[in-house]
Amino acid sequence: MSESAVQAAVAVAAEHGLRGDDPVVLRDAWHVLVHLRPLPLVARVSCGLPYPDGPPEDDVIRELAVASHAARAGAPVVPPSDLLDPGPHRHGGHVVAFWQYVHPRREVEPVAAGEGLRAIHEALADYAGELPSLHTDDLIAITDRLEPSDDVEYLRELGSRQPAGAAQAIHGDAHLANCLPGPLWHDFETACRGPREFDLAALTLSDQVRSDDASRIALEAYGDHDADVLEECLPIYAAWIYASFMVALPRRPELGPVLAERLGWLRENYG
Questions:
Q1: For 167, left (φ over 0), alpha (ψ -120 to 50), or beta?
Q2: Which domains can be identified in the chain, with CATH numbers?
Q3: φ and ψ at 122, to 5 degrees?
């Protein structure tokens, strides 16, 4: 799949007069990230499979719109490319979007990451574009694909809850793996509307399951928030994540023991 994704990225760039003669795949997963070397340009290419086996096109469109809004406000996000129309473009069954290349360096500094997430929330407070309410619809679509079981029904019920707190545009999956040194937050494809504390749940879930000093420090650096709403959001976010693990099990069986451990933690702490 990555070969056709690379071909799509190179072809679309060439249509705009840009030649990436030495492309390299940075990541091959739900999306394929292609650095079109020697250009400071990264193509984010959908896998080309129709939803639900692949990402819906709306994810790419949403990510560009939300990240562009935050970038214009000066928030610390990986910005869309200014070398060409960032997209979305369609080629060979793929959806292609273009982003500025960020050279990897050192580890993410958690204080800066937490402060940066607050800046993003401030920048997105006036975002008026259409976004889903949390990940409720996505969770229902995921669990509809799974064989019925007590665990599936448990995650569906837990993840469909609606927390308190004022809703606005948020990142939607704001764990530290989605932050580059700088800091620069990225991966806005699951942006949604919800309380800011939903992003803080994503930020701190790893610290709840196992001790994680970095996410704890990032939360402290983020500053004021409603601890009660954060506590409400934790199982809602976790249910969405663990349902996604269930879908991925056939192609990633190594997730089995991790999923069993996380479900045990979730039931122990949230009934």
A1: beta
A2: 2-100 (3.30.200), 110-270 (3.90.1200.10)
A3: -65, -40
In 3D space, the residue among 96, 68, 110 whose CA is nearest the CA of residue 213 turns out to be 110
pLDDT score recorded for residue 54: 60
Contacts of 56 (CB under 8 A, 6+ apart): none
Q: Residue by residue, what is the 3-state secondary structure of 27-53?
A: EECCEEEEEEECCCEEEEEECCCCCCC
* Angle between helix 110-124 and 57-72 (nearest 10): 100
Residue from 99, 117, 103, 112 nearest 45 by CA: 99
- Structure confidence at residue 59 as a pLDDT band (50, 70, 90): confident
Per-residue pLDDT tens over the stretch 92-124: 888 899 999 988 777 899 999 999 999 999 999
The structure tokens 């990436």 sit at 20
Rounded mean pLDDT, 73-86: 94
First to last CA, the chain: 41
Burial of residue 63 (number of CB atoms within 10 Å: 0-12, 13-18, 19+): buried
Range 72-95 average pLDDT: 92
The residue type of 4 is: S
Report the alpha-carbon distance of residue 156 to residue 144 in Å, rounded.
9
Q: Find the farthest-apart pair of alpha carbons in the chain and give their distance in angstroms, rounded.
A: 57
Count of Cβ atoms closer than 10 Å to residue 81 Cβ = 23
CA atoms within 13 A on the CB side of 19: 1
| Identity of residue 211 | S
Beta strands in the chain (DSSP E): 22-28, 31-37, 41-46, 89-91, 94-100, 168-170, 179-180, 184-185, 192-194
Q: Which has the minimum average pLDDT: 29-38, 44-53, 113-122, 141-150?
A: 44-53
Q: What pLDDT, in 10s, does the model give residues 125-150?
A: 999 999 999 999 999 999 998 999 99
